[in-house]
Description:
- This protein has one domain: Flavin prenyltransferase-like (Rossmann fold, 3-Layer(aba) Sandwich), CATH 3.40.50.1950.
- 35% of the residues lie in helices and 22% in strands.
- α3 packs across α5.
- The longest helix is centred in the last third of the chain and has 19 residues.
- It is globular and about 45 Å long.
Amino acid sequence: MTNSDVKTPRYGWALTGSGHFFKESLELMRELEPLDIFVSAAAEEVLNMYKQKLDQLPPGTRIFKDRTASAVPVGGFYQGVYHTLIMSPTSSNTIAKCVAGISDNLATNVYAQAGKTRVPSIVFACDNKPEDLTEAPRENMVKVYPRKIDLENTRKLGEFEYTTVVESIEELKQALMARRECLKSSSS
């Protein structure tokens, strides 16, 4: 299916190598349409570790995997295919790369291209408070203590143009609802 064959504009959703609220992010993804999913190589590993599948997705959902050095699927941002990018959950590694302007994988590249084409991004940054509980791959909860640099990068990303950083699944739901309302009012 080419970009000219799909319903546009669409949501784009980038998955990174974080397991923090991974299952909840997948559940939210299943409620959005039309949707394209960008799966980084690290996200593929997390899908396996957490025994999750990209299934029960809205009809017409396309899945792009990190298989090309130049992240070919990002071209849709230049063709007006996307109205919103969501990155959730977003690892501290991805946040740091985005803050530094590094776009060396599919997730960081779609974020960079979204910014360059003024497509609003909603980012659920996993490392956003000094301590937190997160689900480990074997379904046990563990306490994590993000480093100062991780917290600082999350704060910095929140200052980027066209970027909304959220710190919880509830905030992500609210940001998605606000974005839907914005899209609805701009189309009427």
